[in-house]
Design brief:
Blueprint (H helix, E strand, L loop, with lengths): L5 E10 L2 E11 L4 E5 L6 H8 L7 E6 L6 H4 L2 E4 L11 H12 L23 H13 L5 E5 L7 H16 L3 E5 L3 H4 L4 E6 L2 E6 L1 H5 L3 E5 L4 H10 L3 E5 L2 E5 L3 H10 L7 E4 L2 H10 L1
Parallel strand pairs: 3-7, 3-8, 5-6, 6-7
Antiparallel strand pairs: 1-2, 1-4, 8-9, 10-12, 10-13, 11-12
Helix pairs in contact: 3-4
């Protein structure tokens, strides 16, 4: 087997008395897409900054391409930050030229969708186009590893699909990918997942590993609003799937009692927990 492109082993980062990342371990292999999941404040971006060598780890070990993160190892990866890292006052072409000069590579082709916007300042083009430009800038030097922090946040579904096509194309060619996302459909496109909550790693593996034995109950009644309110008021963890009310991390007796106490006719049925529901259960734990 090839060596991992990225290896984080029991990594911790503290800021004074605050622990932002607490004993997290992960690897990214060539051709593999690893999803880093968690709510805002879970520690994902802090972990990425350590991976890039922008922050030292307080404890644990980090390796990029078999060495400590450094300027040299960073030349072998492509990075798309949440803020995209583009200069609003420069044109799309000037942004690409700047990044190309930094890496010492030939001129990166302008994405087809941006051909007519090459001479327009980035601050005057839409967010979807900006994200495509950030991708092009990150890929121009043919990186071996991609680190993508919420790369599709705020873009329309079609642009999101196109960006994921580009991610899969790179992975198919052997590039490793570490990506953070809030979208469960995107998480399902990853080969492996790492779930963080409050700085800690609470689950890792494929989707089935994250879901594990998490169970759900589904209730279909004539008044889903009243059902949702009654179960929520009873302290149960509820969500909606259409007009069906779903409950996770509970048992049928508790759901039936909450319905009966509210005078609602309905019978809870067992259902398979979704990835999002399983994540909520693990974060709650």
């Amino acid at each position: 087997m090839s060596e991992p492109l990225l290896r984080a082993s029991h990594v911790t980062r503290t800021f004074g008395h605050f622990t932002a990342v607490d004993d997290v371990s992960l690897t990214v292999e060539p051709g593999e897409i690893v999803g880093l999941l968690g709510a805002n404040g879970a520690g994902k971006t802090t972990l990425i900054r350590m991976i890039l060598g922008l922050l030292p780890a307080s404890e644990g070990d980090l390796e990029l391409f078999g060495a400590e993160p450094s300027i040299e190892t960073r030349t072998r990866l492509g990075y798309v930050p949440q803020g995209l890292g583009l200069w609003d006052s420069l044109t799309s072409r000037e942004n690409l030229d700047f990044v190309d000069d930094a890496y010492g590579v030939a001129s990166t082709p302008m994405p087809d969708a941006l051909a007519d916007l090459a001479d327009r300042p980035v601050g005057q083009i839409g967010l979807g186009y900006q994200r495509q430009l950030a991708f092009a800038a990150a890929l121009g030097h043919e990186p071996e590893l991609l680190v993508l922090d919420e790369p599709t946040s705020g873009v329309d579904p079609l642009s999101r699909a196109r960006l994921w096509d580009a991610i899969h194309e790179r992975a198919d060619s052997g590039v490793g990918v570490l990506v953070t996302t809030h979208y469960m459909q995107e998480a399902q496109q990853c080969d492996r997942l790492v779930l963080m909550s409050q700085g800690k790693q609470v689950a890792a593996g494929q989707e089935s590993d994250i879901i594990g034995d998490a169970a759900a109950l589904e209730v279909e009644t004539d008044d889903w609003r009243a059902t949702f309110a009654a179960l929520s008021d009873a302290g149960l963890l509820v969500s909606l799937a259409g007009t069906r009310v779903r409950v996770v991390d509970s048992d049928a007796d508790a759901v039936s009692k909450a319905l009966a106490d509210a005078g609602i006719q309905g019978q809870p049925e067992h259902a398979t927990a979704t990835l999002e529901e399983a994540m909520v259960v693990r974060e709650r734990a």
